[in-house]
Amino acid sequence: MTDRLSQLIQAVEEADSSKLLLEAVQNLAAARLEGAIPILIEALSYNNPGAAVASVDGLILLGSAAVPPLLELLDMHNYTARAWAIRALAGIGDPRGLVTLLGVATADFAMSVRRAAVKGLGTMKWHWFPDELRDIAQEEALDALLFVAQQDEEWVVRYASVVGLQSLAISIADVHPTWLAEIQTQFNLMSCNDEVLAIRGRVWLAQQKLQQKIQQIKSDISHESIQMPETEEKKSPLTSSDWQDILNQLYEIKRQERINSGSEGDPRRFQQLAAAITETNN
Known about the structure:
By secondary structure, the protein is mainly alpha-helical. It folds into 2 domains: 1-92, Alpha Horseshoe (Leucine-rich Repeat Variant), CATH 1.25.10; 96-235, Alpha Horseshoe (Leucine-rich Repeat Variant). Helix content is 73%, strand content 0%. It is globular, with a radius of gyration of 20 Å.
């Protein structure tokens, strides 16, 4: 542990007022030191919302290194800390948090937590996924976001679903025209039928952004210049074991869907994916 990290942690531990604690956690978060992750996660449990927000921001900055301990925190019974952890996972966008976000977005009782999860589904790091696994994951995200847009009673969560659907639509516009059409149909319905003016306005903005993306794709096709989108992080840090875990979780979702629909499905696709993932990462 460096002297700087020790001093920052000591400031958190010795803070004797809400204001000093907030300042200490903010300083620790801003340092972007991986050694601070345990303390930042501990701060999610403090009775200090400002410190929790600062911790979430710091964990998001630290990215994937923070994901394993955040996932461990989800197994604990402290709902407040769990809710903050979900916000951090949503902001990080690591694929290991996907299935958690799917469940939270559609079923959590806390409006603010559902909203964070919905946003996270739209901004997942899709470029990290192996190609075929990406299709399965994005289809689940699409279903969840459409469900929220159509069914959630809280307007702020539906608003977030528009943001998530916009992000997802831009990601899949050039490869999944059927999914794109589903999103456009949902936007059209919301722009006419949603009773909240702010949502209709946000839908209009999403439609404009999406139309710009579609025009760009058409232009690229006409000039034969389609390129992969630029991303800041092109190489995934996930291991073959991580991808296998995600695959198993998605398979379980599909298995439950087959049970509910009475369809047997085809598990061979998942077996082939597992073999392909192992090959890719060896």
